[in-house]
Design a protein that fits this description.
With 257 residues, this protein is of the alpha/beta class. Helices cover 42% and strands 13% of the residues. It folds into 2 domains: 168 residues, Hexapeptide repeat proteins (UDP N-Acetylglucosamine Acyltransferase, domain 1), CATH 2.160.10; 81 residues, no CATH class.
Length: 257
Amino acid sequence: MFSRLRSDIQCILDRDPAARSVWEVLTCYPGLHALVLHRRAHWCWHHGFKWLGRFISHISRFLTGIEIHPGARIGEGVFFDHAMGVVVGETAEIGDGCTIYQGVTLGGTALYKGAKRHPTLGRNVVVGAGAQVLGGFLVGDGAKVGSNAVVTKPVPAGATAVGNPARVIQAELDVKREETASKMGFSAYGVTQNDDPLSQAMRGLIDNASSQEHQIALLWKAIETLQANRSATDCVPGDAARSEHFEADKLNQLVGK
């Protein structure tokens, strides 16, 4: 029991820069208190003391603002950061190393008793503030759910789900977009954290610029081939642009940066 408590405290110290000491975490972190009480409630629930399990869960909700059904399964190293208003349903499962922020609901959409109604989070999943994950599906290992997203479908491992209804963005696409944006002098993540029309427009601009760079590279290859048979002055206009000119400063001004 004490070794698991030490592990819970250490994971908070590792992930929260505001945590300054073991004593502070032990006494001032409601997410830790909710986990400790949930383990008592979970033991009661699975040993035939259903009412007692629910009562402990109710007391935990009153003390911490975090509602975890005693039937839910929670792995090791789970961090409820702030976590006020978090709701975890009866058949929900949270894997090792997950981080869950305030206002998150791991809820169900079915009314059948005994069915798998609530989601399963794999290992090291991050669920942003205000997100709603609804249904008996799997959110894969290392996935991320954006703030205020409403997820009703499975999320593949390593992917990101954003928006309402949530769209799934594969990790490799995010990496490619970020690499293109960094060449332009700004970070895509600094603009596209929220899934609003402006961020969608920015994504379109970045993806389009990336495609145009590729097309320009193909054109230059064709021009170089022509230059082998004709003079350079015949093939390339004197004012042809041989370098990229992307006005990142103007774009940042348009979005209010």
